[in-house]
Amino acid sequence: MDFPPIRNGIDYLVSVVEHLDSDTCTGPREIKYAVLHLQAAAEVLLKSRLLREHWSLVFSDPAKATSEKFWASDFTSCGTDAAVERLRNICGLNITRKDAEALKNLGKDRNALQHYGLTHSAEAVESRAGTVLDFLLRFLDTQLLPLLDTQERESIEEDMSRVRSGLNTIDAFVNERMNRLRGNELKGATDSVLPCSVCGQWALAVIPNGAHCHFCGTDVSAEELAPAFQEFEPGHPVNECPQCCAPTLACFAFMDGAGEEVYYCFTCQARYNPQELTNCGGCGCLWPHEGDDDGTPQTLCGDCRRGIEEEELASR
Ligand SMILES: [Zn+2]
Ligand SMILES: [Zn+2]
Ligand SMILES: [Zn+2]
Questions:
Q1: What local confidence, expressed as pLDDT, does residue 234 receive?
Q2: What share of the chain is helix, strand, coil (3-state, %, to 5)?
Q3: How far is CA 282 from CA 63, 243, 287, 308, in A?
Q4: Where are the domains of the chain?
Q5: How far apart are the two ends of the chain, measured CA to CA in Å?
Q6: How many Å lie between the centroid of ligand 3 and the Cα of residue 226?
Q7: For residue 48, how far is its CA from the centre of ligand 1 (angstroms)?
Q8: If you measure from the C-alpha of residue 46 to the centroid of ligand 1, how many angstroms do you get, rounded to a whole number?
Q9: CA 66 to chain centre
Q10: What DSSP line would sit under 38-91, residue for residue?
Q11: Ion ligand 2 — residues with CB under 5 Å?
Q12: How far is 118 from 122, CA to CA, in rounded Å?
């Protein structure tokens, strides 16, 4: 068994924290190499663990693996997503959905970077890199470092502590920024803040027709946001807003909610308690509950009510 890949992976991680060091200005070039090297580190380290299980698992198609091809390095190797899947399904590793997602996003960032240049702000990259670094350090501690003998472990100790202190610097940057935002832009806005899908921070403040992330500067439209939160129930796949009719009504809990869910329209910002809404007796769409006390046997939405009125008129 050959361990240079582990050393190689750690070497990439040292480069990542050096590029993201907040003492120096984090420019586009630093961000670029941080992302490229973090992706390279993830790939090398995940595959080191697969190698330990069996060398054929690093082939993109293990069914076509031969030892000749492996030793000649003459094969296409599996990608990070496949590696995560194999580590879970074959090696039985418990990789959380959040960590798997962070690794996937990193892969996307790397590809986007190579084709279009940077697509996210420095803040977003730093926050995302922090999540992946945290995962890779845990992965090294539990899965890879125990494979090394004492001498090998000593030889990487210095690099490991550089990476650990680098992660602390990144975490400190993220915490400082979040604390400042909580005291300013996000102050008192706890019932209108959501987690941002780009940077992962609870800094996505809703505004008319969408939301804006104060942490990483990402703007998201109502049309992009709603599907992520919408409940896709059979029969009424799209929740139309009773107030503005846009298909952007979703049910979720804001930061402050502590489990209290609201129906919220990402277009017109209408809010309803779940008890306030019920399914229209005609078409099943969500509509403010009309109650039985006024003699109305069931709730009808505007469209269905108009339809019935027109039918009645026509039959007269
Ligand atoms: Zn963000
Ligand atoms: Zn609306
Ligand atoms: Zn209806």
A1: 44
A2: 55, 10, 35
A3: 55, 18, 11, 10
A4: 4-183, 194-315
A5: 88
A6: 21
A7: 32
A8: 27
A9: 37
A10: HHHHHHHHHHHHHHHH-GGGGBSSGGG--HHHHHTT-SPBP-HHHHHHHHHHTS
A11: 241, 243-244, 265, 267-268, 270
A12: 9
The pair phi, psi for residue 265, each rounded to 5°, is: -100, 120
Say how far apart CA 257 and CA 271 lie, in whole Å: 13
The first and second tokens of residue 286, run together, are: 């969500």
pLDDT in tens, 230-283: 654 444 455 889 999 898 988 888 876 566 888 899 999 999 988 888 888 888
Is this model's pTM higher than 0.85 or not?
A: no
Query: Please, what is the average pLDDT of the chain?
Result: 87
3-state DSSP assignment of residue 178: helix
What distance in angstroms lies between residue 153's CA and the mean position of ligand 2's atoms? 59
pLDDT at residue 23, as a whole number: 62
DSSP 8-state secondary structure symbol assigned to residue 140:
I
Residue 215 is encoded by which pair of tokens?
């942490």
Amino acid at 67: S
Residue 273: is it exposed, middle or buried by C-beta count within 10 angstroms (0-12/13-18/19+)? exposed
Mean pLDDT (whole number) for 300-316 = 86
